[in-house]
Request: fold
Amino acid sequence: MVDLSPRTRSGFAAPQRFEADVFDCDVIGRIPADLEGMFVRVGGDPLYPPKYEHDSSASSDGYISAFWFHDGYVDYRGRYVKTERLLANKAARRQRFGVYRNPFTDEPGVESIDRTVANTAPYAHAGKLFALKEDSLPYEIDPVTLETIGRYDFNGQYKSLTFTAHPKTDPFSGEMVCYGYEATGLLSDDLFVYTIDRTGQITREWRLKVPYVSMMHDMALTQKHILFPVWGYVTSMERLKAGEVHWGWDDKVPMYMGVLPRDGDARDVRWIKGPPGRAIVHTVNAWSEGDKVYLEAPMFTGAPFPDFKPIDGSPWDPAKAKAYFTRFSFDLSSKDGSWSEERLFEIPVCDLARVDDRFKTVRQRYAFTHYHDPKLPSDIEFFQGKPRAMRNCYGRFDMTTGEIDSLFAGPTHGLQECQFVPRRPDAEEGDGYLIGVANNYKELRSELIIADAKHLKDGEIARVILPFRAGAQIHCTWLSAEDFPQLRTR
Reply:
């Protein structure tokens, strides 16, 4: 999650508050001729200030932007996601909604309005593009214009009131697995899980109960199992009625891993109990081998974000808000699931890690993410006292050998989540391009980096220069021209 709390939104992080089109962007270097498609980003950009100072950055209005690649040229477009909430605020010319996921703090008269901001992730399936946030249904987006089409419920087949920001698509079957937690309403312990085929039709539903209500931000998928991390961001009715944001950190509750067989029934789910104080916000990948299930994910040993503070009143501890690549294993032949952890690298990384999507659900070799290398030069004055902004390298982490190949973005640059794009559909794992946006804090502009994912140490192939600082990004994705042929004639 990007640290864009209302108290710190100044300088580079100040609200952008405009929609944009940039035709034929300036490029340093040469755009690879075989890159054809669109790099799509979703983040938050508040159109109006928050009602309360203690609100979270997660309440910022959704903003979707994209870099379109065609014939060696790049165009840029940015649009607000026109949610019901945004339109209601625009009509009133003020912020009508209270703190993050707490309807008790809203002003009267908005009870029937969907309060999601759809600001977390872009996702594509069955020829449709969505802007996602886990507190409501997806918002469908036109992939060419980026204009909002509206909320989408899969033709009425999807019954959960919420939809995850992180569904997973099986690259071998084309099936998407998705879920909604707090599925039947505020604070409910219901978890609804769905499979949706490559044509967009729902084919399966499971209705589960969770060990306790927590932030279930991400999941993982293997060829045999679906994994659901449950961990220490908790909530309560007392908390909401007191005017607090939805989540607070409790380092006393144990972590659980839900393991659901893809060919099983709801009664077959196993909730494997782990130690307290662990947090998995995002997963990398998972796979099954016989009776064992493996998960790789960046793991925190404390509250990940300053927006959601400890419930015991203690201060947020930035020393524990560091994520390390960890391999978890679960032995399903044992009575307790045999929880085990192995740290793979001794350097902290940003937990927004990606893999070559063609290798999800089976064991992959590489993970890609950004991190800070303190040995490289940094002009600290430009980072406005925000250590998290100083993630200066994209890294390819070899999860088998422990090797790291990295690209240094520059002494005044902080990186956002990257995306791997294969060079060809049949290319070997990791053969392709790594794409991601760099914040140039000195020049107050955004720069899109394109690099050869197999040779990051050689530096970028090209850098696309925007004449302004683009809106904040949380997550990104790539739309290929093969899957979205309308992009060829956009």
